[in-house]
Structure formats: structure tokens, C-alpha cells
## 1
Amino acid sequence: MTLTEITKNVYSVNGGFIDDFGFITSHIVVDDEEALVIDPGTAGAPGKLISQALSSLGIDEMGGLIGILCTHGHPDHIGGVSRFASKTKAPVFIHREDAELLSAPQVFVEKRLKLDRAGRISMKFEKGPLKVNYNAIEVDRMIGDGDQIRVGSLKLEVIHTAGHSAGHCAFFEPKGKVLFSGDELNNFPNDPRKFYVDLSGSIPAKFAAIDRLEGLDAEYLLPAHDTMHLFENVRIQIAEVRDGVKQFQDQVIDLISARGEVDLAQLIHDLSRVTSISLPTTMDALLPTTLQVALESLQSAGLVRYSDAGIWSIA
Ligand SMILES: [Zn+2]
């Protein structure tokens, strides 16, 4: 059985194991015969597993499922939304900055990844968790920072993190001290240093989000990929995520210093050969995309300089 009890109100349903992405985990928050599903996952298997999970928890998915909550709009999190929402009639919640990924799925390929023409073509044949193979669906409720989403007697607090993508939100259930961190505090898999952001994401926002999520003193940290973290390990995990982002930035600066002047292709090559930092390797587009966002943040901080000829150097 893929249904795991985390607390008496929180359950996880693991989707398939997919390469570097680890488990695509959906979460269910249950109280007083009501449930919320967080991130129904890819357009593949999880819908059925979630339906089975709800029924084994005694939840009527036609009346008791009061919302489908999305941490953000990436295909591995929302691919299953349209099918699951049409089946259950449950309302769909997402932050407005990522809502376009539900209402116009191709936006992910067109605007969120740094792809050349060949990359765009290869995305059509993508078989992994980032495949865009689902129908568009309109969002029922746009969520924002500070919103509260009720389920039974519990309230989930919405924390707009905006590091991993512009509309990324984490959810915190204060009674059980459970933090649903989506892709903001990752772990792909078992390596908190491994992270990526899409082109709408932001490294400064990611650092700010890490500080803010750390301040919640969560006892349960539930990332969307891979395993959960408990109690003291939550703090360790969060610190490692922060170190990973910092190491990545430092490594980019070191490589630019070593080369003097460098273009993006050379930096990607150099970074992929550095073994001291952990990088997403599943999809070719994730490293250039994350690197582009990191360079822009270093440029805004006045640490690196960009010339029109496509050359990066130390400022
Ligand atoms: Zn994501």
C-alpha cells in the first residue's frame, strides 16, 4: 500500500520512482470527514492511488474532498489536476503567478525553461515527470501569502515562497507543525543540496523563503520528492538546502573567476564536471535554466557582469 500515515491528520501517497526526481509524493490532509489533496502529481498513475487512499480514509471524494491544492505549477505536481478535478469536482487552488501553467500547460515549455530549438523539440518526446501531457483547466481559487485554507477544524497557512517558481507556495499546518514544502526545500532524492529553479524563480527569494520556513519550527517536513524529515532532522535538512544554494552560487563565481570571461555553454560544461556540488541531471534543461536564474541574481547583486556578446565575467 502506498498510503503512509504521517500524523493522524496527514497522509502521503507515493507515485512512481522516477530517476533523479525521487518519489512524486502527494499529501492528504484529513479532519472531520473532509480532506485536501496537495499536489496530485503527474498525469499518470497517482489519480487512482489518491482515490483509493481517500476511500480507505473514509472520505467521499465527491463531497468530502474540499480542495486540490497545488504548491506550484510544474507538470510533475499538477499533471494529474485536470483529470482528478473533473472526476471529483473539487476546486483547484494555486498562486496566481503559476495559474497560467494550469490554464495554458505549454507555458511551461515556452516560458519556464531555458531551451533552444532542439530542446523544445525534444520536450515533445519527453517521457519523464516534466512531460506536458494534460488538459488545460481553469483555477477556482487564486491563493496568496497569508491565506488560510480550512479543512475540518484545521487551517493550513499559505506561505508564498517564490524561489523555485514565481508562484511557488509552501503550506503549514500549525497544530501538528507539519510543513508541506513542495519543491522549495528539496531533496532529489536524498540530497538536499540538489535543487533547480525555473526561469520565473529567484535565488534571493529562495534564500528568504528558507529563512522564513526555518522560523516555523516545523516538526514534520514533507517535500514533494523523496522522504520526509522529522523533528531535529528538519532543521538539519533546511540548513543543508541553504548550504546547497550558497555552494552553487559560490561555485559559479569561482568558475567565472577561473575563466575570466565565459559564455553560458562553457559554464554549463564546467559546472557539469564539478563534483563538489550536486546538480539536477534528469533533464538537460534544468541546469541551464537554474544557472541562468543564478547568474541574473549574481548580476543584480553586482557580483558578475554580462556583456551583449553573451559573455559573463566578474564585476
Ligand atoms: Zn517544481
## 2
Amino acid sequence: MSAILLQNILFSYIENMQNSSFRMDINLEIPIAKWVTITGDCGSGKTTLIKLLAGLLKPGKGNIFYPDNLNNDIGYIFQNPDNQFVHFNIERDVAYKLENQGMKFSYMRPKVKKSLEEVNLWERRNDSPNQLSGGQKQQLALAGMLISDPQVVIFDEPTSFLDIVARQKLFQKTRKLVNEKRSVIWSTHEEDVIRQSDYVIELKAGKVSFAGKSRKYLCRKNV
Ligand SMILES: Nc1ncnc2c1ncn2[C@@H]1O[C@H](COP(=O)(O)OP(=O)(O)O)[C@@H](O)[C@H]1O
Ligand SMILES: [Mg+2]
């Protein structure tokens, strides 16, 4: 199986309550080893879908099937990077996932250094994440997520605080991950992200309104 399957998924935030009109109702196949964008208006359900994929929300009905080889190896970063930090020290924060895997310090140190250098934060390693700017926090969250090489990488609007240079680097990094047969799922409303991606899922009010190749999506949208 080369896709993540979402079968007859139903989800609402407050079951059986009338004031919660949002209801997610989807059937979807998300191709793996591709750059997939999830797009749609504000409130269409992008973040909800991402949280379902990451296992942070449970569907009321239906099932999500991941290919066996992905082995639940999912990394995600959220729109607000403040929620991601676990340490008051940047170096320890980036090392956290590797520490959890029980990696030896001598193996860990060079990996941590490389990750932090990639996002220009090695010099800041002894500072607290709280001392960083919004863009730097997002970069730190990225470094901390990518350090363990997850098979599936999920970004929820990761470019919201990034400057042009950091954006370009993230585009390159994403393409590199996909070339290495990893899956990137990226929620965005930006057309230049969609343009560079392979596959688009568009949501409208909790339902899938388009799923297909990016080229086809852009073609339909611009006629
Ligand atoms: N924790 C929550 N409780 C109740 N409703 C929520 C919650 N989070 C999001 N919603 C509602 O669910 C809908 C979809 O939100 P979301 O998935 O964040 O959309 P998007 O990411 O596309 O902007 C919106 O109507 C939003 O108000
Ligand atoms: Mg969102």
C-alpha cells in the first residue's frame, strides 16, 4: 500500500451539540513519498485533518490506515511554534527526541550541532527558546522535528513566521526529504507552495473538494 487511507472519517469537536456546526466527513487516500499540500479557506478543517493524521484527535467514526513501513514514524510542527518546546535550553530542546530514543551523547552531539547549524542557531544553543524571534522559533521547531528523520513530516502552515531565505531553505529541504522517499504533508493557503508540491487536497467546510495532482489543481483554479 502506497497511501495513507482515511476511510469514512467523521469528526466533530463537540459530539451531539448543536452549536458546533463544523463536521469533518472525509474519504481520502494520501499518497506517500510525495509533497502533499492541504489547502482550503480558513476554518475549512486543515488543522483538524492534520491533528487526525498525527493522532492528536480521534475520529468519531472511521479509520486511518498507515502503510506498515511507516511504523508510526510521524513528525509534525504546528502553526504556533511556542507549543512545541520542551526545554529551556535550545541544545537540549533539539536533542530531546534523540535522548528519548536512548542515543548516546557522543553520537547525539554532532547531529545536534549539524541540525542547529542548518537553521543558524548553533551560536544560540545555550539560550532559551523563549528568547528567539517567531521565525527562529519555527526554525528551532523544524530542527527538533527533523533530527530524528521521521518517515512522515507534517507541517501546519510552517511559513507563517519565516523570512524569504528560510522559506526557500524549507522548500529545498522538503524536496530533499521527498527525494529520499519520505512523505511531506504541508497545510497552506499559499499558491507558491502548492505550485512546488506534487499533490493537492483541498478542503471545503470539512469535506474534500479536490484531491489530485497539483498541476491539475492549478489548471482548474485558474480557468
Ligand atoms: N478545539 C476546537 N473546538 C471547537 N471547534 C474548533 C476547535 N478547533 C477548531 N474548531 C473549529 O473547526 C473548524 C475547522 O478548524 P481548523 O481545522 O482549525 O481549520 P483551518 O486549519 O482550515 O483554518 C473551524 O470552524 C473552527 O472554528
Ligand atoms: Mg489551521
